[in-house]
Amino acid sequence: MTTALALLGYALLAAWCAPVLLTRLTGNAATVHPAMIAWLSAMASALVSAAVGAAILARTGADDWPTLTRLLCRGVAGTGCTPQVYGSAMYEAGMVILAVLITLAALVALWRYGRRTHRTVTRTRLHARAALLAGRELAGTGAVVLDDPRPAAYCVAGRPAAIVVTSGALAVLDQPQLAAVLAHERAHLAGRHHLLATFTRGLTAAFPGVPLFTRGAEEVTRLAELAADGRAARSAGRHALVAALLAMATGTAVDGMAPVARGALAAAGYAVPARVERLLRPPAPRLAALAGLMLAVVSCIFLLLPAALAALPG
User: How far apart are CA 45 and CA 56, in angstroms?
Assistant: First the structure.
């Protein structure tokens, strides 16, 4: 009983308090992959703790329902919980209703997660097929072009996957910039970032309003973009990627050799200024190493704490 309450209490604490800690540690994105692991570890830790704690309570209730109801009553009311209270028919009925509501809530969460995940996978595969059928192949790149004046490029996981570039993007990108954009999208596919997005957004649908999952999904998406930026910059060139980001965001061709103007950054749109700033001024190696070490310790704590709580006597 003590173990179950400790696990459930920790799950609630992690769900509401872990985002505050992780936002402070990962907000500057000094190191990307350890930051993603930290967020995912926190989510997994909270889910496992809640599931194990609930399973222990369910097993205790199945084996000895009167003992469970008595311990819960005393855990809430203390000495005010007398045999007349926990032995009354009204209290027993309330406990049964509570157990039914908790079970229904868990089933609804599982259903919402499954529905969101199924819809995401289905739409993604249909989108990939439609893009491959409707688009024309961009020679030598493996990408397809869709006729659309709006500059855009994205990847769609499927069987097979597709990298889509619009005609509007081709109008504002030169060859090095296009290579950088394609490298960015290939990095998303190689890193399986679509799986992370499906997992975290499914949790957001299953547990709406829970900060760890709602904020975590946003942060994992942001960090995935930075990870793809880093890989693309190494293969295609940092300045070409910066110019491509600005050209895509502003809809205007940008000279990759020219310095970045403040006006271009201001007009670049959501998240692009931060990405450009990080590409032009990457974190110092010492800062990145220190941040990575701190996040590794935090991730280990998240992963090991449920096991430690599960080992508590009682």
Answer: 16
- C-alpha closest to that of 244 among 141, 151, 138: 151
pLDDT at 241: 94
Q: For residues 1 and 98, what is the distance between their CA atoms, to the nearest angstrom?
A: 17
Between CA 5 and CA 303 the distance in angstroms is 18
Residue 128 burial class via C-beta count within 10 angstroms: exposed 0-12, middle 13-18, buried 19 and up: buried
CB 200 within 8 A of CB 213: yes
Three-class secondary structure of residue 256 per DSSP: coil
Taking the C-alpha atoms of residue 48 and residue 29, their distance in angstroms, rounded to an integer, is 27
pLDDT at 77: 63
Q: What's the pLDDT score for residue 267? A: 41
Q: With contact defined as beta carbons under 8 Å apart, do 136 and 225 qualify?
A: no
Contacts of 22 (CB under 8 A, 6+ apart): 35, 38, 39, 42, 216, 219, 298
Beta-bridge partners for 136: 145
Nearest C-alpha neighbor of 158 from the set 186, 122, 115: 122
Distance, CA of 246 to chain centre: 26
- For the chain, how far is it from start to end, CA to CA, in angstroms? 6
> What pLDDT score was predicted for residue 266?
42
> Rounded CA gap, 244 and 75, in Å?
60
Which residues of the chain fall short of a pLDDT of 70?
Answer: 1, 61-65, 68, 71, 74-80, 84-86, 256-270, 314
Residue ranges of the domains in the chain?
A: 1-87+284-314, 135-282
Q: Which two tokens stand for residue 218?
A: 């946003």
Closest alpha carbon to 229 in 171, 273, 165: 273
Task: Record the pTM.
Answer: 0.88
Q: Are 244 and 230 in contact (CB under 8 A)?
A: no
Tokens for 19? 């985002």
What's the pLDDT tens digit per position in 259-303?
Answer: 554 444 444 445 788 888 889 899 999 999 999 999 999 999 999
Residue 147 · residue 167 · CB < 8 Å: yes
